[in-house]
Automatic annotation (TrEMBL):
Residues 171-236 form the HTH luxR-type domain. CDD domains: LuxR_C_like. GO terms for molecular function: DNA binding. It comes from the Bacteria. It comes from Mesorhizobium huakuii. The keyword DNA-binding applies. This is Autoinducer-binding protein. The keyword Transmembrane helix does not apply. One of its GO terms (biological process) is regulation of DNA-templated transcription. PANTHER family: DNA-BINDING TRANSCRIPTIONAL ACTIVATOR DEVR_DOSR.
Length: 240
């Protein structure tokens, strides 16, 4: 791959108006570097589910479904390490602390059934998640990228991530993932109020407050209301 290929992709990123064409363009471009599959997703933390966090899904048919159904993200060394670094890395270089576990080895073994043997991951900051990662997969036993090729791949990953965020922001409009009432409930939770206290403040039944809390947690794919509060603050949806 030559640098002009990367610049051409970056220029096309600005013109894509939907995720499908962007995914196809990126897949076609990175094939020149030996990658056949990719996925861009938020990195699940604290009980979050992976599926709602996926923004580009170029995984082989069947593998994504199995990965999600088996909750592999909780034990996959590549996924776990993606939450702990912002440096791009080869999958093979994930520290043994996370890669040499029974669960992580099982995930890697199952991936080979779908033609995934090696890969390269590009973690990045995200306005929608704690952190995101664009992970490229190859059917070769090991990835062979020169330092220059690594820079090319990272550049394309970052611009693809930026484009996805821009498209998502356009799709969200002014409403965002939370209703006004859900934001109110999270604000009072941030202030330390219980569901009972919030119900009295807002003049709602306590079960209604709990329902809004549940909807907010589901919107972010988190397990607790306080995690929803933190995520809403991080996305600048509420300002305690």
């Amino acid at each position: 791959m030559i640098d002009s290929d990367v610049f051409d992709f970056v220029e096309r990123c600005r013109r894509h108006t939907a995720t499908g064409p962007l995914l196809g363009d990126l897949l076609e471009t990175v094939r020149n570097l030996g990658f056949e599959h990719l996925i861009l997703s938020g990195v699940p933390l604290g009980g979050q589910k992976l599926a709602p966090m996926v923004e580009l899904n170029g995984w082989p048919a069947g593998w994504f479904e199995r990965y999600v159904a088996a909750e592999h993200a909780a034990v996959d060394g590549v996924c776990i390490y993606s939450a702990k670094t912002l440096k791009p890395f080869f999958w093979a270089d994930v520290p043994a602390k996370w890669s040499d576990t029974e669960g992580s080895r099982r995930v890697a073994g199952e991936a080979t059934e779908f033609g995934i043997l090696s890969g390269f991951a590009v973690p990045m900051l995200s306005v929608h998640h704690w952190q995101s990662v664009l992970s490229f997969a190859s059917s070769h036993k090991s990835c062979s990228l020169s330092p220059r090729q690594q820079v090319q791949l990272v550049t394309m990953a970052v611009y693809a991530g930026m484009s996805i965020q821009a498209l998502s922001n356009n799709d969200d409009g002014d409403e965002g993932p939370l209703s006004d009432r859900e934001k109110e409930v999270l604000l009072w939770a941030a202030a330390g109020k219980t569901s009972s206290e919030t119900s009295q403040i807002l003049g709602l039944a306590e079960r209604t407050v709990k329902w809004h809390s549940t909807r907010a947690r589901e919107a972010f794919g988190v397990a607790t209301t306080m995690q929803a509060v933190v995520e809403a603050v991080r996305r600048r949806l509420i300002h305690p």
